[in-house]
Design a protein that fits this description.
The complex is a heterodimer.
Chain A (H helix, E strand, L loop, with lengths): L3 E4 L2 E5 L4 E7 L5 E7 L5 E8 L4 E4 L2 E6 L4 E6 L8 E8 L5 E3 L3 E6 L1
Parallel strand pairs in A: 2-11
Antiparallel strand pairs in A: 1-3, 3-8, 4-5, 4-9, 6-7, 7-8, 9-10, 9-11
Chain B lengths: L4 E3 L2 E4 L5 E6 L6 E8 L3 E9 L2 E4 L8 E7 L2 E6 L8 E8 L9 E2 L3 E5 L1
Parallel strand pairs in B: 2-11
Antiparallel strand pairs in B: 1-3, 3-8, 4-5, 4-9, 5-6, 7-8, 9-10, 9-11
The chains are: A mainly beta, B mainly beta.
Chain lengths: 110, 115
């Protein structure tokens, strides 16, 4: 079963715009991670945020975590055509198991 | 490092045949995970190993599925006999210290089609 659910399912924006994707989860977590998947490829880790952190930055990526609402958001600023991909949040379901959400498909038009 | 290596990249087989998927994790990583990705069910964790020992196989759908890790640099996922509903992309991933607080490194996947 999927712990995290991303919203929206799909997002289409123009190059240069910001893209925001949201993730909601059901149970308490220790960490939340975001991954990117280009078409026909494996997932690539983007960023990890721990439950005691509220915000984290990595280049053009900004991730927030609200444990009271059991939600996280991924913001990609100044998007590029190369950002076109699917984005997944993943939560630790206890132990060493990462459970992935259904993903958001992002299309950046040039 | 070459990253996680999976083979084959594509596999087309007929129902009832045995299928073996292979994975070479990143050297030094103690954890290896097998995931399956479909449109309907998304990414599902099938099984994971720690130091070559299977720790949790609760995601393995049926007895037709089996996984082994004979040494630190090699793992297989076998389906026998295969069925059309097994068609999916199978990913192998490895991590240094576990999947919870550590990032996973994924292979490129094996696209399996069972006719």
């Amino acid at each position: 079963s999927q712990q995290g659910e991303e919203d929206p399912q799909a997002l289409s924006i123009q190059e240069g715009e910001n893209a925001t994707m949201n993730c909601s989860y059901k149970t308490s977590i220790n960490n939340l991670q975001w991954y990117r998947q280009n078409s026909g490829r494996g997932l690539v880790h983007l960023i990890l945020i721990r439950s005691n952190e509220r915000e984290k930055h990595s280049g053009r990526l900004r991730v927030t975590l609200d444990t009271s609402k059991k939600s996280s958001s991924l913001l990609i600023t100044a998007s590029r055509a190369a950002d076109t991909a699917s984005y997944f949040c993943a939560t630790d379901a206890g132990g060493n198991k990462l459970v992935f959400g259904a993903g958001t498909i992002l299309r950046v038009k040039s | 490092d070459a990253g996680v290596i999976q083979s084959p990249r594509h596999e087309v087989t007929e129902m009832g045949q045995e299928v073996t998927l292979r994975c070479k994790p990143i050297s030094g990583h103690d954890y290896l995970f097998w995931y399956r990705q479909t449109m309907m069910r998304g990414l599902e964790l099938l099984i994971y190993f720690n130091n070559n020992v299977p720790i949790d196989d609760s995601g393995m759908p049926e007895d037709r599925f089996s996984a082994k890790m004979p040494n630190a640099s090699f793992s297989t996922l076998k389906i026998q006999p295969s069925e059309p509903r097994d068609s999916a992309v199978y990913f192998c991933a490895s991590s240094l210290n576990g999947g919870g607080g550590e990032k996973l490194f994924f292979g490129s996947g094996t696209q399996l089609s069972v006719l």
